[in-house]
Amino acid sequence: MDGFGVLESLRWHDDALWFCDLAHGTVHRWDTIGPPETIVEVPGRAGGLGFLPDGRMLVVSMEGRCVYRQEPDGSLVVHADLKDIAGGNVNDMFVDKQGRAYVGNFGFDYHAFISEKPNSMIYAPPGVPKAPIACFSPEGDLLGLSEPMTFPNGLFLTDDGQTMLVAETLAMRLTAMPVLPDGQLGRPRLWAPLIDSWLWKAVNNPGPIGHITRRVSALLDHQAIAARSSSPIAPDGIAPGKDGTAWVANALRGECVRVGPGGTILDRVATSQRTLSCLVAGPKGDTLYAATIATDHPARAAQLNASRLEAYVLPF
């Protein structure tokens, strides 16, 4: 399906696919048969999605730096406030079966930075600003903050229900954290690196090696080049795969990648554009949905309306 600004946050709920359009601030529901339905327009641009045990929807307001709750009458009320927590736009969200919401944020004004400098210069000293994941109770009270992370983005609970997997987009890795009995997140550990270790060390080096690496990276920082590469992978949205693996939407190029612990690449599915979110769902549970974009800049994306929802039937 074409004609969206920036599709994100794919969720399967109540026999339908739900998603946000970040550029237009809308939430949509699609039953996979007819046209998608617009559910609500969210002040401050819609971000992450989730649902409470009673079915009420939670949705992130990225620029409003809060989480809204949609009441049965369709109205939106503030469920959780992140204004004193988020150092940048609020980002993706995962809501568990108990109704606890885990919410990340950019940590800085990412779009302002890349409008002035190449993306690789984010790694120049002092480096990428860190941001925690905030955990809220089902009533919207703050339970605690995780350790600071590098652009925490997509996240989900693994099958055991005791481990949260998080995409650290600008660190190009997947990180695992234990879920403690009170719902807070414990000490993080590396689950899957998605960039060669030598390149990661070089781009973050504070000396001449880092300066040269970042300059070379800036010269190569073009979509046409990135689209023909297979490494590194910048994980945006992530979703559970089979056998304890994770599907990763690669924000650098048009693909979804299935990753195993340690960073083993198990499968790649090519998409038509860069991907921001992915999900294996559908009526038979065998469809890989991908949210693809021409640009993630909100204003330009709202003009282009070139974001697509793509579906691929998995043969495995």
Keywords:
single chain; 316 residues; mainly beta; four-stranded antiparallel β-sheet; 5 helices; 23 strands
Tally of individual helices: 5
Coarse shape: globular
Separation of the first and last Cα atoms: 24 Å
Low-confidence residue ranges: none
Strand order of the largest sheet: 1-2-3-4
- Content-based structural category: mainly beta
**Average predicted local confidence, pLDDT:** 94
Task: Briefly summarize what is shown.
This protein is mostly beta strands and 316 residues long.
Architecture overview:
By secondary structure, this protein is mainly beta. The chain contains five helices and 23 strands. The strands form six sheets. The chain has a four-stranded antiparallel β-sheet, with no helix packed on it.
Q: Can you lay out the helices and strands and say which pair or pack?
A:
Elements: E1 7-13, E2 16-21, E3 26-30, E4 37-41, E5 46-51, E6 57-61, E7 66-70, E8 76-81, E9 90-95, E10 101-105, H1 110-114, E11 134-136, E12 142-145, E13 152-157, E14 163-168, E15 173-178, E16 189-193, H2 197-204, H3 208-219, H4 223-226, E17 235-240, E18 246-250, E19 255-259, E20 265-270, E21 274-281, E22 287-293, H5 298-304, E23 308-313
Antiparallel strand pairs: 1-2, 2-3, 3-4, 5-6, 6-7, 7-8, 9-10, 10-11, 11-12, 13-14, 14-15, 15-16, 17-18, 18-19, 19-20, 21-22, 22-23
Helix pairs in contact: 2-3
